[in-house]
Fold:
Amino acid sequence: MAAHVSPVQALIVVDVQSAFASGPDAVPAAPQMVVCVKDLMARARTAGALVVQLQNDGPEGAPDEPGTPGWELHLPVHDDLGDVVIRKTEDDGFQDTPLARLLNETGVQALAICGVMSEMCVSATARTALAQGYRVVMPHDAHATYDIPAAPGISDIVPAAMVSRVAEWALGDEVEIVPHATDVTFEPSATQRTRGR
Structure:
């Protein structure tokens, strides 16, 4: 894990939607994760960094089916401060979305990623960000997932915390894993400063 992390110019909040962040079906670490994500969002806005909330459009009958209570973003969007919401249908927040164009237009070179699920949408989005040359920081306490159910003849239940840690490890040595959301700092990009964000 990284001992010191340089500032980033954007925060990508992945699928922090009501179905996953609140209620009896939320990810086990939801209360702690939500506190950490809220802190990251507040500090990113204060610093003038870009805040993007990805919102997954699940299939019919899924907890995050569009238009259902579970699909709603769990945390407020501050349009007046430049927050951006991008809807997606795939795990990877870059696939078939304007995310890459937005990051390019705003001059972002380094970003932090948080949200759910660690091994799916968070990981897929981080992997593409790395492949596209962005510096990627992932705070350990600001992403979460569910337990993996037992599979007869394969394994017992895999606890959610272990799944999240393996997801980090599987991203390789280019991603910067930091223990706490509070380890992440923000700054505006040169383009953001020019635009007076």
User: Anything to note?
Assistant: The beta strands are 10-14, 50-56, 84-88, 110-116, 135-139, 143-144, 176-178. The chain has one domain: 10-191. Residues 10-191 form a domain with the Rossmann fold fold (CATH 3.40.50.850). The chain is about 30% helix and 15% strand.
